[in-house]
Write a structure and sequence with these properties.
InterPro entries: ARM-type_fold, SSU_processome_comp_20. By secondary structure, the chain is mainly α. It contains 15 helices and two strands. The protein has a two-stranded antiparallel sheet. The chain is globular and about 40 Å long.
Length: 254
């Protein structure tokens, strides 16, 4: 009789040396294969949107060519009149954001990746105006995970890739108030799955690495970091320790 882990095994592309093109992998193995390399990627990030456009509109058009799911086509047609220019996006930001969140549902799984990427693109257009939306995004992602996404490695990767891009695009503003970020993400950081806690710890450590010294010296920041679970905290400690060593080495070379 198959064990629970074997029963959940699915056929996946074989990335290791060998003749077999596909191999069966358990859920745990598929989670281990997740690579969220936004913070370490050497790929160039598009510096500016197309002339007269916006990052959101460019992303929407790009995904319309890549995604033919009925739900996303419907969203595209609904959204295009609202995003013709950046000033229009700024004016309609609440409506656009609300419509994006309403599409974060497991039943529309084929549309989830473009919706998640559009959230990141919107953050790049709005910048500091996007920050008040963070608690609602975090709550929506928790709901998405609870509704079954936490058993879907591919969507987990899409989810935290989008979240990581948001952290990267907004880091200039987020590092000014780390306590706010930690409060806004507390439900995600407390999510009862080790791998979710690890992904969140990596995102937090990215902000800590770039935060000014006065932010890191505050007692509130330390207390909120301690609100991470044991797994998340140990992962955060390891990443932050590496950052501290790197900073020490850089100081010694100066």
């Amino acid at each position: 009789m198959a064990t629970p882990s074997q029963a959940q095994a699915v056929k996946s592309l074989n990335k290791s040396p060998g003749r077999r093109r596909f191999v069966f992998k358990t859920f745990s193995q598929r989670v281990e294969d997740i690579e969220i390399d936004v913070f370490r990627s050497l790929d160039k990030v598009k510096a500016e949107p197309s002339e007269g456009s916006s990052f959101f509109r460019d992303c929407l058009i790009e995904w319309r060519e890549l995604n033919t799911a009925e739900d996303f086509i419907s969203f595209y047609e609904e959204m295009m009149p609202l995003v013709q220019t950046l000033p229009l996006i700024l004016l309609q930001k609440e409506l656009i954001f609300s419509k994006l969140l309403s599409r974060l549902q497991i039943k529309a799984r084929l549309s989830l990746e473009p919706i998640l990427r559009l959230l990141a693109a919107l953050s790049r257009d709005l910048l500091v105006d996007f920050i008040p939306f963070l608690p609602r995004i975090a709550d929506s992602l928790v709901s998405l995970l609870e509704n079954g996404v936490d058993r879907e490695p591919e969507i987990i990767e899409q989810t935290f890739t989008s979240w990581s891009y948001i952290m990267m695009y907004l880091q200039k503003y987020l590092i000014r108030d780390l306590v706010y970020v930690l409060k806004a993400t507390i439900k995600l950081r407390y999510y009862p799955k080790d791998y979710v806690q690890e992904f969140m710890a990596e995102a937090v450590s990215f902000l800590l690495r770039n935060a000014p010294a006065e932010q890191l010296q505050g007692g509130k920041t330390i207390l909120h970091c301690l609100s991470l679970s044991i797994i998340g905290m140990s992962h955060l400690f390891l990443l932050t320790w590496k950052i501290k060593v790197k900073r020490t080495e850089q100081s010694a070379c100066m």
